[in-house]
Amino acid sequence: MAFEPIATADQKTAAADKPLRADARRNRDRLVEVAAAVFAERGIDASLEEIARRAGVGIGTLYRHFPTREHLVEVVYRREAEGLCAAAGELAARYPSDVALEEWMRRFVDYIATKRGLATSLRILFTTNSTLFSDTSGRVSQALRQLVEAAVADGTIRGDVDASDVLHALGGIYSAPDTPEWRDRSRRLVKLLMDGLRFGARKAG
């Protein structure tokens, strides 16, 4: 792994607060998007040089936006969590409630894949910024709760399900062995979970 400079707190604050030109904003957004994919594929040891190359920028551009690996990891984590939460409302507006719930859970698998890839740096961040995790986990739980309650209300899933139980079941996916077929197997587990929730609704009807 190439040497990575260590930024001071002042440098990190300046990098975060400095207004960006349109081209710089595009470069930053592209770096975050690519980093999420690369971390999900290769884990936290993924090369920052590869991220910069895939994003079409130089490594110096990456370091100007993200002075440390942990800084990049935090931004990627926030982006993935915020996207997952926003998807709940978007999917609810587009699909029937049970379909919206299933599609959201499939996206949750992708979120977990990125989170697994960031695990080492996330543990480091947890010691310095624990509110990052309490805030995002609370919002993710609330997004799932809204989808579950909507599906229960219109009878498309069984009425005795609690959102916390569904989240617990999804959390089990995170602890599954990290094998090449992990993502495909996880999506099959989501389908099995939804089939069970729908079957219970049909039986109740």
Automatic annotation (TrEMBL):
The keyword Transcription regulation applies. GO terms for molecular function: DNA-binding transcription factor activity; transcription cis-regulatory region binding. Signal peptide: none annotated. InterPro entries: Homeodomain-like_sf, HTH-type_TetR-like_transc_reg, HTH_TetR, Tet_transcr_reg_TetR-rel_C_sf, TetR_SbtR-like_C. Keywords: DNA-binding, Transcription, Transcription regulation. Residues 47-66 bind DNA. Pfam families: TetR_C_43 (PF21597), TetR_N (PF00440). Residues 25-84 form the HTH tetR-type domain. Residues 7-17 have a biased composition (Low complexity). Residues 1-20 are annotated as: Disordered. This is Transcriptional regulator. It comes from Mesorhizobium australicum (strain HAMBI 3006 / LMG 24608 / WSM2073). The lineage of its organism: Bacteria, Pseudomonadati, Pseudomonadota, Alphaproteobacteria, Hyphomicrobiales.
